[in-house]
Amino acid sequence: MNSRIRATASFLIGIMLQGLGNAFVRNAKLTPIASGPFLKRNHLETNVVNGPNFSTFMNMKTASGPMEAALKKPSKTIAVCLEFVSDLAELNAIDLATLSMQLRKVKAAALWTADMQALREFSNEQEQAKGNFPGPCPIIFNGDDSKVSEAVSAGVTAVVLLVSDENMQKAEELTSRDVELIWHVSNPEEVTKIVDSGFGRAFLVDVVENDSDEIIGAIPKGSVIVATVSAMQEGDAEVDQAKFLKSVGCTAILFKRACVGDSEDVEYASFVVDALTRKKSSEFNMTGLTGSANGHFGGVATFGTSKWNRTKL
Known about the structure:
Helix content is 37%, strand content 14%. It has helices spanning 2-27, 66-71, 93-105, 116-128, 148-153, 165-176, 188-197, 212-218, 237-247, 265-277, and strands spanning 79-84, 110-113, 139-141, 158-162, 180-185, 202-205, 224-230, 252-259. The protein starts with a helix and ends in a 36-residue tail after the last helix. Residues 1-5, 11-58 and 281-304 have low confidence and may be disordered.
């Protein structure tokens, strides 16, 4: 008799608790706790006004991989990416492998290139670095869409894709081959299209060519957001630009044309990595933040001219 009473009581308590839980869900509201273009966030909020929330990631068709881990650091340190271009010098296989090793040792977060020979040598060298310290860094192809298949065969970690119906059809095949995707977006509508597809974990934003404020604002919280800046600017302005972009939500910075095969490649790489990842880099020199993330950094204090010989050629 006592066991029957206990079972009935447990059943009634379960119904009561379920009712309370449903009432809580009905009454819960996800409201912003601040105003402005970038909101302070609680654990269920969006990162921007009207932006997608955390539920976006519940519908993802891709899993996190080494590229995402490298370009979205748990420590919130900005990830420094370096682009290699080969239009100023021709390097042989040994030179390219040596450069790859040197850039890994200065702790570049990822190496980006559209050059197929460099892609193969970088990928091979990084693969052989497993078990070393620092370990391998991702190799990312940012060349023409028509060469994506060749890049994948060369062993890249990730590829950059323009937003198109054709590329969205390729996305499932690429991810099935463990290739991570970075979408080069030029407006908020493209961001929405990629997010809705379920393949939108990482985005590349060209802050010089586009109105990046709106684009960055449309990208869901938790995404990889890579912004581009030009390397070797006067007065090292690219460093302050990178720090500003980090402050508005970017997780990684791609320094365009950081490496070209000359004698300053490794020195410059070491300079930008140190400038952005050492502790004192959390504060940066501003005369008033009047610039925006679209290349108009009117409030950033710069000093002197470029100290790099490459810019004087």
